[in-house]
Amino acid sequence: MTVPPTEIDRAIDRSGLRPGGRPVEVVVARDVAEVQETLRRAAASGLAVITRGAGSGLAGGAVAGEGALVLDLSQLTRIRAIDPVDGTAEVEAGVITADLDAAARAQGLMYAPDPGSVGISTVGGNIATNAGGLRGAKYGVTRDAVLSVDVVLADGTLVRLGRPTIKGVTGYDLAGLVVGSEGTLGIVVAARVRLLPAPRRTATASAFFASLEEAATAVAAIAVSGARPAVLEILDGATLGAIDAAEGTGLRGRGEALLLAQTDGFGAAEEMGVVVDAIAPTAAHVEWTEDADRAADLLHARRQALPALERLGRPLIEDIAVPRSRLAEAIAGIRRIADRRGVAIFVFGHAGDGNLHPIIVVEHGDELPANAITAADDIFALALALGGTVTAEHGVGRLKREWARRELGEDAVRLHDEIKRVFDPRGILNPGSGY
Ligand SMILES: Cc1cc2nc3c(=O)[nH]c(=O)nc-3n(C[C@H](O)[C@H](O)[C@H](O)COP(=O)(O)OP(=O)(O)OC[C@H]3O[C@@H](n4cnc5c(N)ncnc54)[C@H](O)[C@@H]3O)c2cc1C
Fold first, then answer.
1. Among 191, 350, 394, 400, which residue carries the largest CB count within 10 Å?
2. Is the domain of 109 the same as that of 152?
3. 431 alpha carbon to ligand 1 midpoint, in Å?
4. Per the confidence metrics, is the pTM higher than 0.85?
5. Ligand 1: which of 117, 185, 430 to mutate, judged by most atoms within 8 Å of the beta carbon?
6. Which regions of the chain are under pLDDT 70?
7. 278 lies in which domain range?
8. Closest residue to atom 44 of ligand 1, CA basis
9. 29-52 pLDDT per residue, tens
């Protein structure tokens, strides 16, 4: 179904990046055949195809400028099957991540990947960005849940990559290659994903600290404690203040940093005891609960971090990861950058993965202040200097290309270019975005 290309909402994502010009066409696909037909048409005419799920991306990946065709998959919303014995689900790309998890839970299972945007993002978008999430500390990222993907190639061919089984090593890992390829290698129209038993018990702790550095020290203590929390999130005082203003919570008054930890499984309470012992020496105050509603409130507050900062201005959302052992150094480095460049940097992230989101908030407007751009560059350089990465989960998109190429290095970029040519010889799939 083609809709008027004047709908700017379908030409942008949540990164704040604005395209130059307008797309020529917006196709909201109703089925896989329509995706194939659109790709055949685009291949024949050389039109750039910008695929989108929900447009919740933060890297400028689903941003469509002059002359592009937007291919919207948000209406491919069928959960085709859930098999509790195999522990798998077959889903279409436009299924909202939380809907898949809810359908799995109805059968005693769970879909583990849970980005902060779980209630709005699509499974296809999560696969395309290899999204992480709050439970990543224990369950990993989207790649860990994907068994196979149905992909429409640049010439319209539909191909299944990967395998139906939990185990299997036949052929190259082409499904793995598509995961995280940000719409540059093919269009994911459906996937078979792994489901896990839904944990029967959870225990959730909130620990407040006098500084973010102390919270980072506590993360290291948990890492060597023998416990493995499913969730281990970190938020600084400024972010807590923004959440309080948006949600009416009273977090900021309790400390300059918050660690949110959740253990799950049959021994959740016992494991939480180990976590609490590990952080007690550095925490100003720790409390924990097995009450599901209290836990849901805490996790909800965490998920509101980015929307709360969006209320303050235009956020430049960074997404670095460093080895967990260097988290405290990364935090100290970010503080120095904020002071040196004279910008406000809010920090929160998935501490269990060493993944920090330093967010520079600037006034709304098209022009970014020079000191904000320099501060962002400093943050990328810091991540690389600490042996980390410039994007842990949001992807490269249009915003992080230069730094991604620096991180990859010349030889790896050449390999990427060659792989891209195999999948997309005419370069029509999301040009200008990714690595
Ligand atoms: C409040 C908030 C919290 C967030 N929290 C997290 C988080 O915790 N972890 C995290 O990883 N991300 C997070 N994000 C970022 C975002 O939600 C993820 O990147 C998500 O995976 C994007 O899904 P989407 O369906 O919105 O994809 P889009 O934004 O529509 O697209 C993202 C990229 O994937 C491509 N794409 C989309 N669908 C397909 C497809 N079917 N086939 C091929 N290419 C496709 C697009 O071209 C684009 O390059 C958050 C965003 C917000 C707004």
1. 191
2. yes
3. 17
4. yes
5. 117
6. 4-8
7. 202-244+253-293
8. 183
9. 999 999 999 999 999 999 999 999
